[in-house]
């Protein structure tokens, strides 16, 4: 009941004219960026980080959460109409969604995606409302050893579980950790990896890294590499933009199953929505094979409904894990965590005690965002699709200018612009040679926490490393990590064996 009363109080904050406006702005921006090829919610949040210094923290974070959810709504539009997933989380939606569009059912496919994302996100928001306070209370038992174990769990899971090459993922993680330790050591006061330059004594800003990695690097990649590839022809949907009673009854069980599959992945640092969307699609495909009239491969509505619900339920739970544990499960969540720290806030149990107004207003905004996104996507999906007609040179030139202006406005330093360019070129090289960006971002965001926790734990135990495995919570995290790694290795070996066969 305390959670329900706090949520009602949060609605009182978020339904003010100012905060409601930021919810709508975030949903619009997230949907717009999700629709456009090559972009994503992580880029939108990274671009807006430098220009939100003047905003009140609650307003900025409400907007970022709207962008996070809106990116998934918008991305499905491109996947269905163009057969081109903008993010890995929408790949599974292309399999049956594009088939539906080819069969003249594009409006029903878009409606299926919008309603599925709404159901998944809304159920996840309800679960987060009651689960996040419990998680925060549980994390209050964490000491330095437990926080180090949690950070290590995130490092290993995001760099090895969701990447095709564990070596590339680990190298990207190490690079992120290396960037995080540049600057003056907070304990000894000694400069580290500054190359003798006073410009690096304060380290490299997480804002500069995220904008360079997720925005400028993506622009360079899209301009140099992706422009050489041909996109599919966008299908023009015609007909009713809603589902019939029969279609709704067909999709409803898939929406619920997809939501159930996606929820647990919101608290597992396994790269975000990619894995649960594929699992949800695979589960529906297996169920379809047992039917007397299998429909997968011809535009089965259940093959689109389940991944869409799974993706948004994972995102909703991810925001709960971020608030209660300070644990980012994807690149976008890592950037939002950086936004918290930019405002001097640290997610976790103390945030629920010190800033309950912010926490519960943010949770209430999840519900409002779902309603806003359904309202602007269900009837107006084709209007959003017209953003695909924007000439790519104008789009990418505008993003590049916004990157530079945002970084310069936040620091007034030419040196930061140089660092931005270097990071952008590095991101381009990583994308070109298929190195994942998420481990680098998560390594930089959580690197300082891991270093501080390791030092604190070792100092309190006079250098005895056994302190790192002296608590049931830390041991439990390591055991879960080993199980996840074992299952991942088994799945990859099975996949290779199947490919050889």
UniProtKB/TrEMBL annotation:
<keyword id="KW-1133">Transmembrane helix</keyword>
<feature type="domain" description="DUF112">
    <location>
        <begin position="20"/>
        <end position="442"/>
    </location>
</feature>
<protein>
    <submittedName>
        <fullName>Tripartite tricarboxylate transporter permease</fullName>
    </submittedName>
</protein>
<feature type="transmembrane region" description="Helical">
    <location>
        <begin position="396"/>
        <end position="429"/>
    </location>
</feature>
<feature type="transmembrane region" description="Helical">
    <location>
        <begin position="360"/>
        <end position="384"/>
    </location>
</feature>
<feature type="transmembrane region" description="Helical">
    <location>
        <begin position="170"/>
        <end position="191"/>
    </location>
</feature>
<dbReference type="Pfam" id="PF01970">
    <property type="entry name" value="TctA"/>
</dbReference>
<keyword id="KW-0812">Transmembrane</keyword>
<feature type="transmembrane region" description="Helical">
    <location>
        <begin position="59"/>
        <end position="82"/>
    </location>
</feature>
<feature type="transmembrane region" description="Helical">
    <location>
        <begin position="435"/>
        <end position="454"/>
    </location>
</feature>
<feature type="transmembrane region" description="Helical">
    <location>
        <begin position="147"/>
        <end position="163"/>
    </location>
</feature>
<feature type="transmembrane region" description="Helical">
    <location>
        <begin position="466"/>
        <end position="489"/>
    </location>
</feature>
<feature type="transmembrane region" description="Helical">
    <location>
        <begin position="109"/>
        <end position="135"/>
    </location>
</feature>
<feature type="transmembrane region" description="Helical">
    <location>
        <begin position="20"/>
        <end position="39"/>
    </location>
</feature>
<keyword id="KW-0472">Membrane</keyword>
<feature type="transmembrane region" description="Helical">
    <location>
        <begin position="203"/>
        <end position="226"/>
    </location>
</feature>
<dbReference type="InterPro" id="IPR002823">
    <property type="entry name" value="DUF112_TM"/>
</dbReference>
<feature type="transmembrane region" description="Helical">
    <location>
        <begin position="321"/>
        <end position="340"/>
    </location>
</feature>
């Amino acid at each position: 009941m305390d959670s329900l009363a706090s949520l009602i109080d949060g609605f009182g904050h978020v339904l003010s004219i100012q905060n409601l406006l930021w919810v709508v702005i975030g949903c619009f921006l997230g949907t717009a960026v999700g629709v456009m090829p090559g972009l994503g919610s992580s880029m939108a949040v990274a671009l807006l980080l430098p220009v939100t210094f003047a905003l009140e923290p609650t307003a900025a974070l409400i907007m970022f959460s709207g962008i996070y959810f809106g990116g998934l709504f918008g991305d499905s539009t491109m996947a269905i109409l163009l057969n081109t997933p903008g993010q890995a989380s929408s790949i599974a939606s292309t399999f049956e969604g594009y088939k539906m569009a080819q069969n003249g059912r594009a409006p029903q496919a878009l409606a299926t995606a919008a309603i599925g994302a709404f159901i998944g996100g809304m159920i996840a928001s309800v679960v987060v409302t009651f689960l996040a306070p419990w998680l925060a209370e549980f994390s209050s038992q964490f000491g330095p050893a437990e926080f180090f174990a949690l950070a290590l769990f995130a490092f290993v899971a995001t760099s090895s579980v969701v990447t095709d090459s564990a070596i590339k993922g680990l190298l990207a993680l190490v690079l992120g950790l290396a960037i995080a330790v540049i600057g003056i050591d907070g304990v000894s006061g000694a400069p580290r990896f500054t190359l003798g330059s006073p410009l690096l004594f304060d380290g490299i800003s997480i804002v500069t890294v995220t904008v360079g990695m997720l925005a400028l690097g993506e622009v360079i990649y899209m301009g140099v590499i992706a422009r050489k590839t041909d996109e599919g022809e966008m299908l023009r949907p015609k007909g009713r933009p809603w589902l019939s009673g029969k279609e709704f009854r067909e999709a409803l069980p898939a929406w619920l199953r997809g939501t159930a599959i996606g929820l647990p992945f919101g608290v597992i640092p396994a790269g975000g929505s990619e894995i649960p969307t594929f699992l949800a699609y695979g589960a529906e495909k297996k169920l379809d094979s047992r039917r007397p009239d299998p429909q997968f491969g011809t535009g089965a509505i259940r093959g689109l409904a389940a991944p869409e619900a799974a993706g948004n339920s994972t995102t909703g739970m991810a925001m709960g894990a971020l608030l209660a544990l300070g644990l980012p499960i994807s690149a976008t969540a890592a950037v939002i965590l950086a936004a918290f720290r930019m405002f001097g806030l640290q997610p976790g149990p103390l945030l629920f005690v010190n800033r309950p107004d912010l926490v519960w207003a943010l949770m209430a905004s999840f519900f409002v965002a779902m309603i806003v996104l359904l309202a602007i996507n269900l009837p107006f999906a084709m209007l959003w699709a017209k953003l695909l007609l924007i000439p790519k040179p104008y789009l990418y030139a505008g993003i590049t200018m916004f990157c530079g202006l945002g970084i310069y406005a936040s620091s007034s330093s030419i040196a930061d612009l140089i660092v931005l360019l270097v990071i952008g070129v590095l991101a381009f090289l990583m994308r070109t040679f298929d190195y994942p960006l998420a481990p680098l971002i998560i390594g930089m965001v959580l690197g300082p926490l891991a270093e501080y926790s390791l030092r604190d734990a070792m100092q309190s135990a006079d250098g005895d490393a056994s302190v790192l495995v002296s608590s049931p919570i830390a041991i439990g995290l390591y055991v879960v990590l080993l199980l996840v790694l074992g299952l991942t290795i088994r799945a990859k070996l099975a996949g290779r064996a199947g490919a050889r066969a």
